[in-house]
Protein 1
Amino acid sequence: MWKPESLDPENWDDMRKLVHQAVDDSLDYLESIRDRAVWQPAGEDVLQQLKTRAPLEPQGARRAYDDFVSLIRPYQLGNSHPRFWGWYLGGGTVIGALGEFLAAMENSSVAGGNHIGVHVEKQVLDWCRQMVGFPDEASGVLVSGASIGNIIALAVARHVMSEVDVRAHGVAGLARPVAFYTSVEAHSSVQRALELLGLGSCCLRKVRVTERYAIDTDELQQMIDRDRAADVHPWGVIGTAGTTNTGAVDDLATLAAICRKEKMWFHVDGAIGAIVALSSAHRHVVRGMEEADSLTMDLHKWMQVPFEAGCVFVKRRADHRDTFTTTPEYLERHERGISAGDFWLSDYGPQLSRGFRALKIWLSIKEQGTARYARLVDRCMSLAQQFSIRLGETAELKLLAPVVLNIVCFRYDPGGMSPDALNELNRELVMRLQESGVAVPSYTTLDGRFCMRVAFANHRTRAEDLDIFVDAALKLGEKLSRFGRTAE
Amino acid sequence: MWKPESLDPENWDDMRKLVHQAVDDSLDYLESIRDRAVWQPAGEDVLQQLKTRAPLEPQGARRAYDDFVSLIRPYQLGNSHPRFWGWYLGGGTVIGALGEFLAAMENSSVAGGNHIGVHVEKQVLDWCRQMVGFPDEASGVLVSGASIGNIIALAVARHVMSEVDVRAHGVAGLARPVAFYTSVEAHSSVQRALELLGLGSCCLRKVRVTERYAIDTDELQQMIDRDRAADVHPWGVIGTAGTTNTGAVDDLATLAAICRKEKMWFHVDGAIGAIVALSSAHRHVVRGMEEADSLTMDLHKWMQVPFEAGCVFVKRRADHRDTFTTTPEYLERHERGISAGDFWLSDYGPQLSRGFRALKIWLSIKEQGTARYARLVDRCMSLAQQFSIRLGETAELKLLAPVVLNIVCFRYDPGGMSPDALNELNRELVMRLQESGVAVPSYTTLDGRFCMRVAFANHRTRAEDLDIFVDAALKLGEKLSRFGRTAE
């Protein structure tokens, strides 16, 4: 029978063979990832080959895949590797990837309506909410990550704290200036969120931190008092459970108490650290988080769900829904058919088209169980402690910040070098380590001191990887500092 | 050798078998999708089985997959089916799903830096930009869909049109009220975007439409004049290339001319229709789109890329970047290592964690070629025309709106019924058709008339599917109206 052209395979058997081969190649690649360089950049030749005009006529799936194998796979970021400790990324899992495939093959969009994707997302949100100790009545929605989660949470805060209807009248109608407070170590997405919401970065007060890089709560209280005296309306505090730089955790219980007293919104950015609540050994570190009015967490970080996967919770469902819905509650869709159901996820955030990202999370939690995630948290925190002990056993590698979670900041310091020379040495050392393919640390600057930074958020990392890294860092550091000294 | 616990498979061979089986099951399912009901809701028993506590200990990948097969796969939305014509969704493709799998197995986050994901996204954006006729100097970024794309575009408009630095001072510092204009048929995400941006829905003027459901440009000009006279600052016009209700396309060339004359921002929401520019036979319909200052398009709709996939383009790169970046241009990252490179995608939108969604798009365009997408556009538009002709051949099915693109609005009207009874009949008819599993039309209301609505955006739809639908609609309509008449 003649079939009109579609985008389906002309030959299903060929496509089937190709997908099976791609699966085998990918599993081979991941199973043997330890034997490979963590990261290698694509050369000019590869980039030139990549840069082509869009083909006019079909090239076929086989050719597209072959190009992926030669031009793309070897030059990816590398965060599935056990010694990728830069930035703060998870390592991914096979079942997570399978979840993406299965979701895309059916291709549901999960805005709402009467189909299983809505129920699966609801279930996944319930599971995550319980993991982080948020109450039953809280609402939530899956998002691409904490940047969008923070926007949603702060939009709800704006909606609740405003004396005017901001959805109708905008923030131009506010009678007084408003203020949000967060520490200087908070993630840049907090400021970006307030900018997007039309409040402006001027309303963000950046509070100094203690020597543990956590928000100085005395200073916070004084800033609130000063603002009130100046007729500024203090709207909210953004606490951080796990800063990007050092993994510091704010004193969330004290922040909760301040917000309660001052009648302010309390948001916790738990992109990194919310999941610590799952560990009975360590949940005391994030105590107070459960008192927040809103909370973001990332599942593509410590929980290893493939990108993108995050969620945001709001303590009172009505606050959350009223901020975004365009359907009054009394007009909720109760009909039969695909539009039935009174829980529309698009009522809880800015997206209408929404992929079925709940599936990879649902499969992951079922495969692994929550206790295994708790053990993973404990193990990564233990690796960070072991690593800092290992640093202490060397003469040259010096710890620069307290290790609270799974992030360690340190530098190579052979002694006798100027601050500038030390910064320069460590800058070169990070680059050389990344270029060597042995490991990917990243870097930050603490009190003017450039330092290396490793975040143990990869489930594949083992104790032996720490030794490999320390040996390489010592060897390279020695070589660079010898060269540096003779060159001076 | 003893291996510490990770989230990797304990037995890679078992996992390999499972993934291969899942691939076969999925391909079998998709290849035979015509033989299946388009949609069936999950019963209470399924929902009860789904509703469980998160497992504490690992259940294993096999059990998680088996639960997917029995509890999830059969009850998804169904938009991969050739007779799913509700809402406006693409059907997905095998290579798109493979792209999701491959991206997740490596698990890159594509915020920026020196890795191939950044280059692939850049390439994909170039291809899409060329498809819709936007100039070389335009910037772009992949997004989850047009709702987020519209937020980004209108954030840029706000940044450019404001006389104060809105990022620093917020919109409270604006000297005068501002206004955006769009038609009453525009997508709800336009209003939601302005609400999120703190401008408030009060600044959105909804302009009436012509009998073709396109914006009335005379009325628009008068509203702008009235606003200027009232000291309101007209900031921008949002034109629509393909409305959700009827597929109407605004007169974009006239909107462009008005915006040029009035020095206003011109944004086009091309979620549905931007891709029509690819068809030499039909690109005249969206003429003027290329003159826009910003443009959103969805790739998970007519281009069949699995959810989520959309993009937004901005004519002047600096406008786009200045709206979102937190890094001044002179401080751009030029170092070596993973952070190198001066093109950071996170500088062009609110996300920092960003999945490698470019891969599925890259693979798709390479597999299919742009000419095939053009033929798909032509074929879907032709199906819509054939369908409206087919309606004309029946006595009872009446067309309710002009067919401009691939959307047809119509209703069953056997004659002699009151407006209310007709609405009721058609409401019941849509539900029955969905419940029958034969097809999924959706519905809308045009000038108080409830009607059925089909959107031919699925690449699997064939001419024979139209006959199957019309036969079922006539049979069910006849049955319902007979019952209705006897019951009256």
Protein 2
Amino acid sequence: MHVSDLVTPALIVEARTLDANLATMAKALPGSRLRPHVKAHKCTALARRQAELGSRGFTCATIREMEGMAAAGLGDDLLLANEVVDARRLGALDARVTVAVDSSETIAAAASGGVREVLIDVNVGLPRCGCKPDDAQRLAELARDSGLEVRGVMGYEGHLMMVEDPAERAQRVAESMAELSSAHEKVGGDIVSAGGTGTFDCNFAATEIQAGSYALMDTSYDQLGLPFEPALFILATVVSVSDKFAVADCGLKSLGMDHGNPRIEDAKVWFCSDEHVTFAPDSPAETPATPVRVGSRIRVVPAHVDPTIAYHERMHIVSGEEVIDSWPVDLRGW
Amino acid sequence: MHVSDLVTPALIVEARTLDANLATMAKALPGSRLRPHVKAHKCTALARRQAELGSRGFTCATIREMEGMAAAGLGDDLLLANEVVDARRLGALDARVTVAVDSSETIAAAASGGVREVLIDVNVGLPRCGCKPDDAQRLAELARDSGLEVRGVMGYEGHLMMVEDPAERAQRVAESMAELSSAHEKVGGDIVSAGGTGTFDCNFAATEIQAGSYALMDTSYDQLGLPFEPALFILATVVSVSDKFAVADCGLKSLGMDHGNPRIEDAKVWFCSDEHVTFAPDSPAETPATPVRVGSRIRVVPAHVDPTIAYHERMHIVSGEEVIDSWPVDLRGW
């Protein structure tokens, strides 16, 4: 299939860039050093590629993601890195399931739901889930008393992913991880799970890194000088052109907008509507090779990849002008 | 089914509020005066309710919406109020299909795709699609020469929906619609299609109003003093509580974020992550009846309903604590 045959808006992934990103990370964090986070792509076909490169364990954000990974035969070691208050669907899975817990309620939910293994989730600075570091030991004891195997700890330093200066980022990650390590000493277990794409090369305390964005990358991560390149775009069709602006069929329902407007090369984005992006192409004199006409195909670069992908049913893998594969975004929903 | 049995995050719709919104609009704009826009809810079950209240014609934003409406038996008079450069899927529908055109290319696409009827889309001030008013006559002639039936004109005054002062809004709508009327005089046809929820009661030039948001409503529209009430929420479960904040399982992948953060009653929203909202409940002393605990269910009010709904597979219709119906959001995708 030719790229021009795709119905727009369409998620497209540059095969070569994806391959390079996956290979770079697999080399930096081989085998169990990487526990790829599937929330970033929600796609078992892409997860299978990560598995082929050595990752047997995966990180998930939702129960649906856990179910989909298990159904796809990728359930060797699945971690739900979020808390749940009803774990029965997890307990029913034909997979090795570990779930994060940070309270007596979530421990009780894991035990009564039939889950066997947990990590104690420790707050390492991001105001989200996780217990206080000095409460980790109590929770680990409670979990063991409830019949659960405690495999170790996790703590997500998400507030540090975007620290621009690498040295400062490394320093602050070390401080944040010191809290996790101190909790780990008291909790025990083999696992210290943490990190993300922004800290994959400066988090030395974690036994495994939960990176996800590296595969397809994000505009914001792109500013950190990481060895990964943006691989995902939205193909859109120009449907209307006036003297000052043009309009393409990619809008609020095909773009995660929490990081702001998308980018379009050689153009200024004015605003997005439900199904449209209005943009002003740079002067034709500067881009004589690519005039924008009704029917032109353009590439829109989403500001935030994860919530963008969650709007789409499929991602199309392209090489040049050929669509070489089409993968269902099969881990959507809850 | 009980509301507490729903898997969260879940779209919930208050039956009574929805019914009141639908009835109010059907009374204000009976029969063909209203052409409800399905993009707001993407749900044929909800569209069927609108049809039962007298609307035989509907407005769509995508080809998929047109297909879904036709398949649901709601194809008496479907308007695709956006331009397309490939109309073959529209031409294949078993339904009365009208499509917006604003250029020679989109006219050619309609004709060659097998569509029979068009509206000339006129730009009435919103920088998006639509021809210049003084180009409408030429395009109408071109369409007729191409064998198409020109049913009239459309023009969306979307830039005026949020003008706060009702008198100023009415005045500016009248000015905007004067351009559409002048184009209509030269184009001919029975239809002048325009308007939306924000101008449903002050657009007197249109023969039909394309309102959609009124059914479920939006936070932003809610500030205009319209006779419609918010009917849609997201039910979320609190999964973690600390001394300063709490976290519920509703995040960037269940919320349209282009209008900013959602609201939570009796709480301040701090930020959203992919699957979480972090919020600070107001002091317990002020809300003794509803302490936030792990496992509590809360209602999250999205800032923008349309792109929120597009993330969800179903909307659950509730009355009190009972789920009285569950409707697929079956018009998603493209």
